[in-house]
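Practice set, problem 2.
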Amino acid sequence: MAKNWWKAIAVILVLFALIGGLLIDVPRLPILNETIRNLFYHVTMWFAMMILMTASVVYSIKYLRSGKELDDAKAKIAAEIGLFLGVLGIVTGSIWAKFTWGAYWINDPKLNGAAVTILAYFAYMILRNSFDDEEKRAKISAVYNIFAYVLLIVFLMILPRMTDSLHPGNGGNPAFSQYDLDNTMRIIFYPAIIGWTLIGVWLGELKLRLHKLRIKKLEDEL
């Protein structure tokens, strides 16, 4: 049980973010008002998504170098969980947009880039199911995963900063760190990132364990 201490921390941090994010005092900013609390959920989920997608591309690169099936499995699992968090981020972001911008979706570089990124990783999942040959599937998927990660960086980190955007931190629109002068939100924000990331790692561990069990069962049947 001692080796699972980090799982307890993951649960505590996420609960702390979910409950504390609703109770803590937040800056009373024009338009945003109480909706700024979504920062604790929408943004932190996307931070965790990017961490998991980074882990996914690292394992894809490791697979191309080692050819180990386990590296390919880890890349797939990390991408699956990252995609799940990304979809949650899109949903929570759309709800936030409705209350602050008056619509669930607007023609904004950051939002459009997020949609392209999510679609790119959905395509990764579809691509994986398009091949019967396991080695061929793993190699092509690994190469595509690198391409998808480049799209993530370009559409989420680079292009929005080069164009006008309503999204905080992009296109000359200041980030929340410049608004939050009293630092109270940081008490929830950073633990939430750690918590969601650890939950993602925990889910990945469970999925990897199931994968190994399926492989072992197939080997036993042969």
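Problem 2, part (b): a different protein.
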Amino acid sequence: MIRFLVSRFVQGVVVIFTVITITFLILKASPGGPFRSERTLSPEALAAKMEYYGFDKPWPVQLWRHIVHYATFQFPESQLFSGRTVDEIIVSGFPVSASIAVPALLLALIIGVPLGAQAALRPNTLEDRTSQLAATIGICTPSMVLGPVLAILFGLKLRWFNVSGWFDTSDWVLPAMTLGIIYSAYIARLTRGSLRETLAQEFIRTARAKGADNTTIIFKHALKLACLPVLNFLGPAAAGLLTGSFIVETVYQLPGLGQFFIASAINNDQELLIAISAFYAVLIVSFNLAVDILQAWLNPRIRLHA
């Protein structure tokens, strides 16, 4: 198990620094300079800024500086938000994004797992077809469409929630519903397919032949194995909920990390763009590592082949 964890950790570190490198190279290959929006700067002031942020150095030197900064937790200052380091900006914006993503993930599990399990236990019935249709609609509906629909229904028509801003304790509900409903569709499809496959396996037939009741077979034997694909999906899903909240934050005008990311992209704030990309890489690696640990605990064969 220790070798398994060390292997996953090393792979995660490589992924994080690969993301930093790729993000840096994309930014350097993009047209325009880091201070293209500051047209009033004199050549002397522009040269001073370039020197201050280290942009006057060769690209390999700049890349190495970024890697050293993040490896030693010495975070640089944002170009767009002068006087604030990139970690301060992330700390200020991430709680809003997390306040949306965490409830959305819980909602997706609460809706998706029972819906998929019910469909798997009653195949080719009206319930099964209805749940598959609902899941297909959920998968095909982007957040930029579902968000405004929920805002119009629950915000403008029923007036239960605010449709924009971050002013009330309930302002997370509509954004979380927007993301949670969409991801519940993926989880429902995964749960249905995995549970149906598990129920058709030999050990389930053996348990039935020994006289085990249906409840014991489902909850003690089948669901444990059927949950493995769902667990495998949770790592990318959690990351997708956080990055997908960029669109939802724009729809509902929330001061989350997505707003900082968009602003840094528009203004070519290289330091903040690389920092947010690296931060999300850390989150994705952490989520996937947690999922790997859960899978290894539920299925020891994963450890043996790691």
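Answer key, part (b): The chain has twelve helices and no strands. Residues 119 and 129 are 8 Å apart (CA to CA).
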